[in-house]
Specification:
By secondary structure, the protein is α+β, with helices and mostly antiparallel strands. The protein has two domains: 115 residues, no CATH class; 34 residues, no CATH class. The protein contains three helices and ten strands; from the N terminus they run αββαββαββββββ. Strand 9 and strand 10 form a beta hairpin. It binds zinc ion (ZN). The site of zinc ion has 8 residues, from loops.
Length: 162
């Protein structure tokens, strides 16, 4: 009888190890850590259900992504705000500008700089110059529209909320 773990099972185990010991990581499909470039999520990251076994959930994500040829790596991370863990297929791009542009199109909130082990946020919190409503927008826009009052103007009319 052959009980050796499959390729996807080994990658799943590596992801879970990193998640428990380091709080997150980006691993290539072969389970090896990605060390260079910018990781961009493919969109629609779902939290793992803490009431069900992680292994089964992560293996399903790995199986599905590899079958669909989705991305080249997996991002795993712990969100301290919600206390939930995430595993998401990602692609790794070498160019930061290309990575941010692709991420914006997908509505991602951030990309991850692998060489510097640092998150790069893509949204800026601002306040509306007209009604004072606070919201976030993608940076480098020529015009911003307030979702509360509809006021549309240049970014200088929306002071940073920091
Ligand atoms: Zn407004």
């Amino acid at each position: 009888m052959n009980n050796a773990p499959t390729y996807n099972e080994r990658t799943t185990r590596a992801l879970l190890n990193e998640l428990t010991t380091n709080g997150g990581c980006t691993l290539q499909h072969d389970g090896v850590r990605a060390r260079d470039g910018y990781a961009v999520g493919l969109g629609g990251a779902e939290a793992l259900d803490p009431k069900r076994p992680y292994f089964v959930q992560v293996l399903r994500i790995v199986d599905r992504a590899r079958k669909a040829n989705a991305g080249t790596a997996f991002g795993a991370w712990h969100d301290s705000a919600t206390g939930l863990d995430y595993v998401e297929p990602v692609e790794v791009l070498s160019c930061r500008l290309a990575a941010t542009q692709v991420a914006r199109v997908r509505g991602e909130l951030a990309i991850f700089d692998l060489a510097n082990n640092a998150e790069i946020r893509l949204q800026n919190p601002v306040t509306c110059g007209q009604c004072g409503h606070g919201f976030s927008h993608a940076d480098a826009l020529e015009q911003i529209t307030c979702p509360a009052c509809g006021f549309t103007s240049e970014p200088c009319d929306f002071p940073d909320a920091r």
